[in-house]
Amino acid sequence: MSLPGREVKDERLERASEGAALARGLARSYGDASLPAAAGDKLASTVLANRLLSFNPESGVLRAESGLSLAELNRIFMPQGWFTPVSPGTQFVTLGGMVASDVHGKNHHRDGCFGAHVLGLRVRLAEGDIVECSPSLRADLFHGCVGGMGLLGHLLEVEFQLRPIPSSCILTETRRVANISDFLDALRVAAQRWPYTMGWIDCLSRGPQLGRGVLMAGDWAPRAGAPRPPRVRRGALRFPIDLPHGALNRHTARAFNAAFFHAHPRGVSASAGPAEPFFYPLDRVLDWNRAYGKRGFTQYQCVLPRDAGPEAVLEFMHHLASTASSSPLCVIKDCGPQGRGVLSFPMEGTSIAVDMRITDDTQRVVDRLNAFVISTGGRIYLTKDQFTRRAHFAAMEPRLEHFQALRRRWDPQRRLRSALSLRLLED
Ligand SMILES: Cc1cc2nc3c(=O)[nH]c(=O)nc-3n(C[C@H](O)[C@H](O)[C@H](O)COP(=O)(O)OP(=O)(O)OC[C@H]3O[C@@H](n4cnc5c(N)ncnc54)[C@H](O)[C@@H]3O)c2cc1C
Description:
Blueprint: E1 6-9, H1 13-16, E2 22-24, E3 42-45, E4 52-56, E5 61-65, H2 70-77, E6 82-83, H3 95-100, H4 108-111, E7 118-124, E8 130-133, H5 139-145, E9 154-161, E10 163-164, E11 169-177, H6 180-193, E12 196-201, E13 213-220, E14 237-238, H7 250-263, E15 268-274, H8 275-279, E16 285-286, E17 297-305, H9 309-323, E18 330-335, E19 349-357, H10 362-376, E20 379-380, H11 390-396, H12 400-410, H13 419-424
Helix pairs in contact: 9-10
Bound molecules: flavin-adenine dinucleotide.
Residues 22-29, 33-34, 46, 66, 88-90, 93-94, 96-97, 100-101, 103-105, 149-150, 154-155, 282, 383, 418 line the site of flavin-adenine dinucleotide.
């Protein structure tokens, strides 16, 4: 895939980032966060700057260049008994992208976002200087960079705390859930026992089955007795073609959803297996996005605050069932308290993410969902967004003025920008 902008790849990120308007990792953000604001803008690609710089096997503290991918990190460190403290649902992301989006994982209710485990950053500022920052050194810069979508500086190096794991196997418990109210209860109960939880929702179901789905919970298997993980074949499957635009429609999605739901037995089923399919189910099919056809898809992800009550989640599901076009992918997660990143996404509450095939109606659907999310005090996840309007973003983001003040301080000439900042932040 070729992306617009003057993309510069260099294994010396100091060189590539000089004069760049934006940094880009593996471009796994769904929307326009890693796209340039203007065709002539220089983009620093980080992917060749992927060296491990230091690792302390006693403490688990790792420092690496920001282009290191999570897949590479897992390949090297999982067999040695270490894992990232927080993992998104794909390992084809870079450390820089994980910090800039302050990614969350299935363990947000316990461990917060990735940024909570970052100890230090080396940053090239907009004016060219290279500085270190951490929770105690230039803390305002640090907290602006965490979740700051690359708009406060180019991250050159990331130092963070790895987590010891007893084995590279995961014990999982899976259960079918009858509707959205049961889902919220089941997530709450599972969160007390399991470090990793998430649910798949059939977002086309209605009536008493509205929000039915499958809850998955997991934990690391103890070393003693952990089953030997079968070899995981990476990228063995590739989606071969762009499906015709209408191939994924309400009927095919409904059939898929019903089949997936009923493929899981009633009650609880337990299993043990390698970690990768549990954390990264979509990574097993390369180019899976082609299933949505040439016009592609967007993902709408929001968090509804706990204070808004279960009624808010129920009403959101009603909106989704009545408006969202044909989606086989809808994920629900429990979020813990808001983190330190100034624009970090999660807040205490329920996050729902849904893939939507792009149609002429998508803008209207996103507008409607955003209006509802704003009414609950919730917000959307910037790294997934492509359609939110500036006025809606301002209405849902009380921290925006703080973030803009940080930009005025650390980028007074407004040199750093992206298509996303152009759309949402008045650049
Ligand atoms: C299948 C799939 C599942 C996902 N699941 C989750 C999930 O569970 N939780 C979650 O939180 N996210 C999830 N994501 C989103 C993904 O984790 C984020 O979009 C992440 O930022 C992508 O990393 P990247 O290296 O591809 O960054 P890019 O997409 O290249 O960039 C994303 C943003 O980070 C900035 N950036 C990247 N590198 C740097 C750098 N070195 N310095 C400064 N800024 C930088 C870019 O400017 C841009 O604003 C998922 C994405 C996919 C495709």
